[in-house]
Every structure is written in C-alpha cells, then in structure tokens.
C-alpha cells in the first residue's frame, strides 16, 4: 500500500537535492563513448551486498532521470549499468517512452523497468519461448509491486497523487514543458525511476537465490 506521506517527503528531498551536474554529465558521457561495461555476475557476492546494490541503483535511477530528462531512460540505464546489460542503442530506443510517448499513459519507471527485466531474463533467440515466459513472469511480479509502492502505473495519476498535486502534461506544449521544468519536474519525478530501478533489481537479485 502506497505511503503517500513518505513518498511526498522523498519528492521534496529530490527537489532540494544538490545535483552534481558536471559529475553526472561526465558519467553519462563515458557510457556514451565506451558503452555499458559487461560484467560477470557473482550471485553470492551480489546477494551478500544486496541492500548496497539496491540503494545504489535507486540513486542512479534518480540521477539518470534528472540528467537525461527522461524517466524511462533513467530507469533502464540504472539497471543496465548495474548488471552489465545491453548497450546504449537500447537506451536510445527508450527516448519516446516517458508517459508512454508523452500520451499520459504508462510511467517511464515502469517501461524502463520492463526493458531491463527483458534484457536480463530474455534471449536474442526469438524461438526461445522459455525465456519469453521468464520475462513475463518477472513483469507480472514487477508491475503490481510498482503499483503497490506508489499507487499507480499511470503517469497523470502519479503526478497528481504523489509528485505535484496535479497533472502537468509536459509533452502537450512547450509552455507545459517549461512549467514542468520550473516546478522541479526533472528533479521530483526522479522518485519513480528510482523506485522502478530498485524493484526491477530486486527481482533480478531474487532470481539468484
């Protein structure tokens, strides 16, 4: 059940955070130039450091949303970087996904999380039906947990109930986007990529047990 008081307190913390823009820009520039580092995952080490990993990936989701101004990219990139998944072409493909193409439907914290789960549990072999089933099972865990954590998976409701107290519809016009930015939208909306990245990572780590 969503704890709206705690969520709104977190939103306020994000609004007041001192964002280290040069450091964030340098980090994403390195990922762009060098790609996402591949990793050999050690399940025992990951399980032993679970909480540290989850805290880090949540923070990265918030930071990447802020610097990229894109909740779907921020969510996916945080998980991809942590577990060595995919490449920056996939992050590029996430560009139109905030608010599900700006339509006000699915939150980018959800779509980015689903992409990350697909990269971890899925397969490049389109005839590998077993891994398709595994990704669906992961998604069936992820989506209700996200909704339970924040109260919805839909962008307007999240903006109204958690982030701003109203739906700002930033993609509707340049004026709306300016108002969204002035209201601290890129800072405050980091809440949702952070939570999406953390929940997706929890499911990945749980599968290692």
Mean model confidence by pLDDT: 96
Structural class: mainly alpha
Terminal residue distance: 26 Å
- Most strands sheet: none
Put simply, the count of helices is 13
Shape: globular
How would the blueprint of this fold be written?
Blueprint: H1 4-16, H2 21-34, H3 43-48, H4 50-68, H5 71-83, H6 88-93, H7 99-102, H8 108-121, H9 129-150, H10 155-163, H11 174-182, H12 185-188, H13 191-206
Outline of the structure:
The chain has 209 residues and is an all-alpha fold. It has 13 helices and no strands. It has helices spanning 4-16, 21-34, 43-48, 50-68, 71-83, 88-93, 99-102, 108-121, 129-150, 155-163, 174-182, 185-188, 191-206.
Give an overview in words.
The protein is mainly α. The mean pLDDT is 96. The radius of gyration is 16 Å and the shape is globular. The longest helix is centred in the last third of the chain and has 22 residues, at 129-150. The protein has one domain (4-206). The protein is built from 13 helices and no strands. The two termini are 26 Å apart. Helix 4 (50-68) packs antiparallel against helix 5, helix 5 packs parallel to helix 13 and helix 8 packs parallel to helix 13.
């Amino acid at each position: 059940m969503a704890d709206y008081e705690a969520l709104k307190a977190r939103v306020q913390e994000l609004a007041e955070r001192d964002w280290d823009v040069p450091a964030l820009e340098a980090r994403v520039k390195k990922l762009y130039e060098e790609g996402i580092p591949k990793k050999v995952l050690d399940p025992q080490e990951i399980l032993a450091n679970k909480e540290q990993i989850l805290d880090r990936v949540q923070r990265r989701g918030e930071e990447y949303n802020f610097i990229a101004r894109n909740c779907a990219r921020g969510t996916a990139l945080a998980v991809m970087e942590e577990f060595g998944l995919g490449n920056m072409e996939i992050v590029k493909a996430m560009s139109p996904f905030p608010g599900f193409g700006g339509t006000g439907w699915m939150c980018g914290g959800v779509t980015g999380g689903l992409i990350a789960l697909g990269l971890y549990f899925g397969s490049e072999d389109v005839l590998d039906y077993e891994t398709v089933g595994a990704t669906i099972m992961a998604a069936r865990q992820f989506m209700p947990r996200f909704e339970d954590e924040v109260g919805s998976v839909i962008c307007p409701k999240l903006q109204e109930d958690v982030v701003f107290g109203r739906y700002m519809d930033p993609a509707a016009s340049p004026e709306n986007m300016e108002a969204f930015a002035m209201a601290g939208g890129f800072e405050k909306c980091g809440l949702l990529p952070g939570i999406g990245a953390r929940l997706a990572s929890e499911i990945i780590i749980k599968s290692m047990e």
